Amino acid sequence: MGRAKKQIAKKKKKAEQLKAQTKSGSATVARNKKASFDFNLGKDIIAGIVLQGSEVKSLRLGNAQMKGAFAKIIDDEVFLFNCHISEYKHANRNNHQADRVRKLLLNRIEIDKLSHEIAKSNQTLVASKIFFKKNKAKVLLHLAQGKNKGDKRESLKKRQVNLDIQRALKQY
């Protein structure tokens, strides 16, 4: 009986931690896993997103995909492209469009610095994840430079070596 009670207590504790994590607003909603494979990620920038109500509800349920998401500076404003937030099922006919372009919130100084760095070097803004911070939706952007095939092969080899090391350590 003592063992079963301990297991139940552990499950409750994990559930409380998960609940607390989402309440505090630091939960990651979506990731762009291909970003680190396709690009050399550099400086990171956190930006807010302009969303509609149904988009926020859909994000809280985790209905977002960021494959190929990137940002562009157009007329001194930053916009997020290729970010798919699924429609919220319980919304009315005024539901949002899933693949619309979303405006990002940055200070004027930050936008000027970014545009200067992008113009100076051959870099792009890549979105790597969406998360909630203090109940506000945020996007993590990176100044990134594209990898060529050789760099991608090297990263695959490093990943495979790390997996082999982890497997070997697990056996001992």
Top keywords for this entry?
alpha+beta; 172 residues; six-stranded antiparallel β-barrel; two-stranded antiparallel ribbon
Task: Give a written overview of the molecule.
This protein has a single domain, classed as Small protein B (Small Protein B, Chain: A). The protein is 41% helix and 31% strand. It contains 5 helices and 9 strands, in the order αβαβαβββββαββα. Strands 2-7-5-4-8-9 form a 6-stranded antiparallel beta barrel. It has a two-stranded antiparallel sheet with strand order 3-6. A hairpin with a 2-residue loop joins β4 and β5 (77-81). The longest helix has 23 residues, at 2-24. It is flat and about 65 Å long. The model has no long low-confidence stretch (mean pLDDT 84).
